[in-house]
Design goal:
binds adenosine-5'-diphosphate, Rossmann fold, binds magnesium ion, eight-stranded mixed sheet, alpha/beta, 255 residues
C-alpha cells in the first residue's frame, strides 16, 4: 500500500482538486483507493458526492482510538474509490495530537491494517504545518506539492524541502512539486516556471493549466473525468498521475 499526501502550507493552490482527480484516476486504473479527507472544510468529501448529513460519526474519533478507521470509510459512486470524510471535529485534532506521546507515528499505526484492502491512500490536507502534517511526513511515501506559478510559491517549496531535512524519518519522504493554475499566455507564469526548474530539480515539471472546467467539479460534484473525459484539463491530471506512479515505484517500503 502506498500513501500520497497533497500538501502545501497555502490554501487555494489546488490540493483538493488534485487529490480528488488523482484518487479517481488511481481507482479507475485498478487500484483500490482510499481518499482520506483531513481538511475540516471537507471539500474533497463533498466533491465525491458525500453530503454533510451522510457523515454521522466524528472523524476525530479515529484519532482518539474510539472508532476504527474502516467504520468511517464510505463507498463513493466511483468503483474502487472510497473516502473517509472530514468534518469540523477535526479542528480539535491539533490539541489531541499535542497530548499524544508519539503523535508522528499515529497515522502510520492507524492505517497499517488497511493494506489488506487498499492499494493507495490519498490524503487531502489542510493548509498548515502542524502535528498532523508531521505525522504525514513520517508515514507517507510521497508528498505531492501543488505550486502556483509565483516566486513566493517556489520559495515556500524551498522552505518545505529544507524543513523536511530536519528529521531522519522525514528524509525518506519523496516530494513531487507541480504547477497549478498556469496561464501560458502570461509571461510571469512562464518565467517563474523556467526559473523554478533548477530549484525544484525538474526540467519538465507537470503543469496543470488554469481552466474553469476544474471549478465545474463543484457543480457536478465529481472528478473532471466524470464530465469532461477528453478535455485538456483531464489529460493534465493523467500526466500528473503518470509522474506520481513513476515516482511511487522508486519509493522504498516505509514501516
Ligand atoms: N487548475 C485550475 N484552474 C482553475 N481553477 C482551479 C484549478 N484548480 C483548482 N481550481 C479552483 O481553485 C479553487 C481552489 O482549489 P482547491 O483545489 O480547493 O485548493 P486547495 O485545496 O489547495 O485549497 C477551487 O475553487 C477550485 O475549483
Ligand atoms: Mg483543500
Amino acid at each position: 500500500m502506498k500513501k500520497i499526501a497533497f500538501f502545501n502550507v497555502k490554501g487555494g493552490v489546488g490540493k483538493t482538486t488534485s487529490a480528488v482527480n488523482i484518487a479517481w484516476l488511481a481507482a479507475q486504473g485498478g487500484m483500490p483507493t482510499l481518499l482520506w479527507d483531513l481538511d475540516p472544510q471537507s471539500c474533497a468529501s463533498w466533491y465525491l458526492g458525500i453530503d454533510d448529513d451522510a457523515v454521522d460519526k466524528k472523524s476525530i474519533n479515529i484519532f482518539k482510538g474510539k472508532t476504527p478507521v474502516g467504520r468511517l470509510r464510505l463507498h463513493t459512486a466511483h468503483s474502487r474509490l472510497s473516502v473517509i470524510p472530514a468534518d469540523l471535529s477535526l479542528r480539535k485534532l491539533e490539541l489531541l495530537l499535542a497530548q499524544e506521546a508519539k503523535s508522528d507515528q499515529l497515522l502510520a499505526r492507524l492505517t497499517d491494517h488497511l493494506s489488506e484492502r487498499q492499494q493507495l491512500i490519498v490524503y487531502d490536507c489542510a493548509p498548515a504545518y502542524s502535528q498532523l502534517s508531521e505525522s504525514l511526513f513520517a508515514s507517507c511515501d510521497l508528498l505531492a506539492v501543488p505550486l502556483l506559478p509565483s516566486p513566493l510559491s517556489v520559495r515556500s517549496y524551498q522552505q518545505l524541502t529544507a524543513f523536511l531535512q530536519k528529521k531522519k524519518r522525514w528524509k525518506k519522504l519523496q516530494t513531487l512539486p507541480f504547477f497549478t493554475m498556469v496561464d501560458r499566455r502570461r509571461k510571469i507564469h512562464n518565467d517563474v516556471i523556467e526559473h523554478a526548474k533548477s530549484i525544484i530539480g525538474d526540467d519538465d515539471p507537470v503543469i496543470i493549466p488554469y481552466a474553469s472546467e476544474y471549478e465545474k467539479m463543484g457543480i457536478h460534484r465529481a472528478p473532471i473525468h466524470a464530465f469532461a473525459p477528453s478535455s485538456k484539463s483531464a489529460k493534465a491530471y493523467e500526466a500528473l498521475w503518470q509522474r506520481l506512479q513513476h515516482q511511487l515505484v522508486k519509493t522504498t517500503v516505509r514501516s
